[in-house]
Amino acid sequence: MSGRRATTRRKILEAAAEIARESGPGNLSLDAVAARAGVSKGGLLYHFPSKTALLKAVVESFVASFEEELARRKATKAGRPDAMLEAYLELFVEDHDCRRPPPSGLLAALSQDPDFLAPVRRHDRALLDRMRQNARDPAMALVVYLAIQGMRATNLLGLDVMSDEEFSEAVGKLKAIVGGA
Asked: Which residues contact 20 (CB under 8 A, 6 or more apart)?
């Protein structure tokens, strides 16, 4: 893919994710995405022939960018035990501390077709396997993973009831478990 086409594709994906975050998944229209990305609707359709194709690409893009950042962070841990788990916890805390909106592109995709989450499930399964393989205690890695996933899910669904102090307390305990405190 040429650099120009890749740039346009990236702009479209970013626009779709922004609209889903700001306006909710139900307001994600091809016209709105094209306008936000600064491309014609025909240009958008060249890259993504349907809303379904666009939503699938949004999910795949989210998974790929998350994996890239996770790999970058793990590399800084120089092969230590629990490096993957520590990197995952670090990334989770940073996302929370930055008050980044949850990846509602995932919710937009799910509202269109639950099968769009298959790449997320595959990624998460592989991630959990890698964390357990690298862990001093694979069962504890599972518990930490589930705690993070639970906090992510409550945030994604708008059900988060923890205060900032409670979040910090939970993260402190997770860091102590992982050894990154």
From this structure: 28, 58, 104, 105, 107, 108
What pTM did the predictor assign? 0.78
In whole angstroms, what is the distance from residue 47 CA to residue 135 CA? 41
Query: What are the residues whose beta carbons fall under 8 Å from the beta carbon of 44, sequence distance 6 or more?
Result: 12, 30, 33, 34, 37, 54
Tell me the residue type at 62. F
Calculate mean pLDDT across residues 119-147: 93
Q: How many CB atoms lie within 10 A of CB 176?
A: 10
Instruction: Show contacts of 42-48: CB within 8 Å, 24+ apart.
Output: 43/8, 44/12, 47/5, 47/8, 47/9, 47/12, 48/12
Q: Where are the domains of the chain?
A: 51-178
